[in-house]
Amino acid sequence: MVSLQIWMLIVGFSVPMIISPGPGNTILATAGGRFGVRGTMPFWFGFEAANFIWCLVYGFELSRVLHDVPGAAHVLKWLGIAYTIYLAYGFVKPSKGNKKTAMPRLTAIDGFLSVSLNPKIHSMIFVLFSQFLRPGISLAQQVLQITFVFTVLCIVCHFPWIYGGRVVFHRFSDEKSAKLQGYLFGGCMAAVALVLAVTV
């Protein structure tokens, strides 16, 4: 059983990392602004499912492959940048036409890929397990408990980003505002891609 002290450290580490601005939260906020909370649910489900699965991968030490092959992290970085640019294009493209050309809602697969191709999330989960697993306690028990708690924290911390995006942009529903939102959301995604390219 993981001790209370370790749980406090895990929560203290995880919450600021999860809730802080970054590529994932930017995508969640823009999806919430464009599709609303209900319309974002499939994407959000895939997003959190990926967090859960990657926790299991890292927790059970399958991540040694990525750790031992430095080139894998580099490839992951550029795949993530390319996917973020693809999302940016998806938001900007409908602003060039009418409502019939509106961007289709993001799917669970989109959510899963957004997490899987995000280097920040891989780094965070890697540190989570490398720092907080303890010898003398069942590895499976620790990994499952930490994975469950981390996933719950993700759900709780990501909801305000989705809801906040919805609240901020809900009042702007006319065609002109929709076009402006498309450019704004696409610009946010493009900025995220640029930051990833020059800093990560």
Automatic annotation (TrEMBL):
Entry keyword annotation includes 4Fe-4S: no
Keywords, alphabetical: Cell membrane, Membrane, Transmembrane, Transmembrane helix
Transmembrane segments: 6-29, 41-60, 72-92, 112-133, 139-161, 182-199
Main localisation: membrane
Annotated compartments: Cell membrane
InterPro entries, A to Z: LeuE-type
GO MF terms held by the record: amino acid transmembrane transporter activity
GO cellular component, one term: plasma membrane
Membrane topology: Multi-pass membrane protein
Xref: PANTHER family: ARGININE EXPORTER PROTEIN ARGO, ARGININE EXPORTER PROTEIN ARGO-RELATED
Entry protein name: LysE family translocator
